[in-house]
Amino acid sequence: MQRFSHFRLAILTALVGIILSLGISAFLYIQDNQRIRSQLSNDVTELQQEVNRQLQTHMFGLTWMARHSTRNQGDHDLWQREAPIVINSYPHFRCLLWLNSQFELESLYSTIAQPSVDQLLADQDYLDSLRGLEPGQRVMLPAGPLALNSADVALIAPLNTTQGTDYYLGIIDIEGLLRSTVARHMGRHVYFRLTSVSSNSTVFELGNNHDASQSWSGFSDFTLFDEQWRMELWPGQEQLQAMRSWVPLLIMLAGLITTALLTFVLYVLGISRVRAQELADTNIDLYVEIEERERVEKKMAYLAEHDWLTDLANRNALMERLEEFFSQSALTQQHVGALFIDLDNFKEVNDALGHSVGDQLLKRVATRLNKIAPKHACLARMGGDEYVLAIACLNDPEELENYARQVLSALDTHFYVDDYEMFISASIGIALSQPEIDTPESLIRNADTALYRAKESGRNSYHLYSEILHHELNQRMELMKRLRNAVEHDKLRVYYQPKVDMQSRRIIGAEALVRWQESDGQIIGPDQFIPIAEDTGLIIPISEFVLKTACKQLAAWHTLGFTELTMAVNLSGKQLQSPGLIEHIMEVVNESGIPPNKLELELTEQVFIENIQSHTNFMHAVRDRGIALAIDDFGIGYSSLSYLKHFPVTALKIDRSFVQDLPNDKDDATLTQTIINLAKSLEIDLVAEGVETEAQVDFLLDRDCSVGQGYLFSRPIPAHEFTQLLDDYQGQIPIQIM
Which ranges carry the GGDEF domain (predicted)? Predict the structure, then answer.
């Protein structure tokens, strides 16, 4: 609608122009119709006058001839001589008759075949109408028997003579008279009708087209020879078109053309205004866009060197500042230091309270770190929950460690975010540059390496980078590469440690444990490669390999007749994040052919503490399918035992750290007794790990913990040795086997 407002004047002009043009044209058209009707009335009046004049003239010629004959005593020769003269002078006479007072034919002159005079003389009614005429009275009557056409009339002039009244008749070809008169005065496409008002009969009609007779008829009433006559005249379509004026059409065309021109001019002006407005709007938009682009460019330039969340320097800006610090330190013979700061357990904050709260916490941490940053320093956010504080002009590592302690102290005070009170700690990796050796990249890398060791040390601490640490990292990288190669080339083996009913010493199950055996026979313990596998994600293919191998081996033992054996397999917490895990486990179980209730999945206590909904769903799905669920290394986590009520746990495995000093250590004895009591009250099975002495067996049996595993019964052994153990002792465990 706003766009049409610019053309409102053009639209109004068009409407007004069209209405005025049509109105004026309609008015002129009506006026033209009135003019045509008036012209037709004038024409019929003129025609009537002309016809009347013609008849009067013919009557005059007839009367002259009659009087001339009377003065000459009825000279018949004179009549015959003058009759052709009269007919030639008055061409519409068909014939001339002279009747005496006795209605006897005295003389006749005709231009046509012999008229029916005898019929006339025999028509008494017609003769009686003649007798009633007064001498000197001139009348026009139908031609009667003398008519060749029904429209023919007779002009009658009675005159007194010495013998009485003679009657002179002139038969008029009225049709020819009217045709010639209309043609001479009106043209070809005009229609005519002569009506006797007295007798209400049509005397003559020219043409039979009555289409326009009602709308366009012009008429005139007149008296001729003592009779009332009506003459009507109307045009045909061609004549009507010829009579019409072109002025209404020209006026309408001129008005429409003028309207179109004015409308076009106003439309062009409207377009010009629109274009001008659009140009103005475009210029405004362009200025806004330019300003916005400049703002965006400034913002992009700012973001290219700053973190979008905390407004701290980002990695690019940090590296540039470090270049400056290194150049400066080269001149002053000082060091550049870096503190690589990583917030502890920040993921739990995000998971529990949401990312918006986590972002606010990151901003508040940045604010606190900024307050303790020295003058010649650069604080940057590297992404996630990692910060780097780069400091110039350092003389020794002690200064850098002092800043690390300040950071830990600054973060020690609680944070308030959206009504949440939170405590956060940090792990810090420290690196100090070595002149002419380190670069900004290597300094950050060394600090990151030291950070890894600080996290291993228990968090909320710092660690200074050293060459020893670098060497350990290289060893770890080498071990990681070798582990990947071992997974790809099937260098992993599954060993089995018996689970024993300590009362009967009967083997009731086994726990599948993975071992890494190199080509040279070297065995690498799980304590060395399992943490690396967890960090790199290799734990998932390793766990899948162990599960398939263990289920297949259990099926083989069942085939040998040991159908009561169960198999415990450890699952990694990372595996629980894999979609379709329960379907994969059931596929392995079904392929191996073992009963689901003979498989037990062991999860670490940390998985239960996290209490993630997906973990909970998985555990219930496992139990719904009949698979047992155990908590491995129970009691060593930072757990609230209330989670045991919410999970379908079937067994607790008492960690070896509580068993190894039994029965002498009172604390361990108390804790173990507590775990046993807890399991009994919840009706959960117990397995003691790390059983190595008979005293430990006695302690556990006295407290109703009857299932154990450990070196007292057997170390983890290959499948063929486990099979031999089953065969040799019929499922019993001799005490001396290690």
Answer: 334-467
Of the chain, the end-to-end C-alpha distance in Å amounts to 95
Q: Distances in Å between the alpha carbon of 155 and those of 78, 170, 179, 566?
A: 21, 5, 19, 151
- CA 29 from centre of chain: 56
Q: Which residues contact 695 (CB under 8 A, 6 or more apart)?
A: 662, 663
Residues across the chain: 738
Instruction: Find the angle CA(232)-CA(233)-CA(234) to the nearest 5 degrees.
Output: 130
CB 729 within 8 Å of CB 506: no
- Is the preceding omega at residue 663 within 30 degrees of 0, hence cis? yes
Neighbouring CB atoms inside 10 A of 717's CB total 19
Which residue spans of the chain are classified as CATH 3.20.20.450? Answer: 492-729
Spatial CA neighbour of 672 closest among 650, 687, 683, 684: 687
Q: Which CATH superfamily is domain 315-465 in?
A: Reverse transcriptase/Diguanylate cyclase domain (3.30.70.270)
Helix (H, G, I), strand (E, B) or coil at 56: helix
Question: Are the C-beta atoms of residues 189 and 40 closer than 8 Å to each other?
Answer: no
d(CA 578, CA 54): 125
Q: Which residues touch 664 (CB under 8 Å, ≥6 apart)?
A: none
Instruction: Tell me, yes or no, if the pTM score tops 0.85.
Output: no
Q: How far is CA 656 from CA 343, 685, 691, 710, 738, in A?
A: 32, 17, 8, 9, 17
Classify domain 492-729 at the CATH superfamily level: EAL domain (3.20.20.450)
- Strand 651-654 with 426-432, pairing: unpaired
**CATH number for the domain formed by residue range(s) 8-239:** 3.30.450.20
CA 695 vs. chain centroid, Å, equals 78
For CATH 3.30.70.270, the residue range(s) in the chain are 315-465
Provide, for the chain, the percentages of residues in helix, strand and coil under a 3-state DSSP scheme, each rounded to the nearest 5.
Answer: 55, 20, 25
Q: What is the DSSP secondary structure assignment for residue 133, as one 8-state letter?
A: P
- pLDDT averaged over 10-residue windows placed end to end, the chain, 738 residues: 65 85 85 80 80 85 81 75 86 85 80 69 75 74 76 80 78 82 70 74 70 67 70 73 77 86 84 82 86 85 84 91 88 90 87 86 92 90 92 88 91 85 90 83 90 81 84 78 84 92 92 86 80 84 92 95 93 83 93 94 77 76 92 68 75 90 88 89 90 93 92 92 84 51
- Rounded Cα–Cα distance for residues 287 and 295 (Å): 12
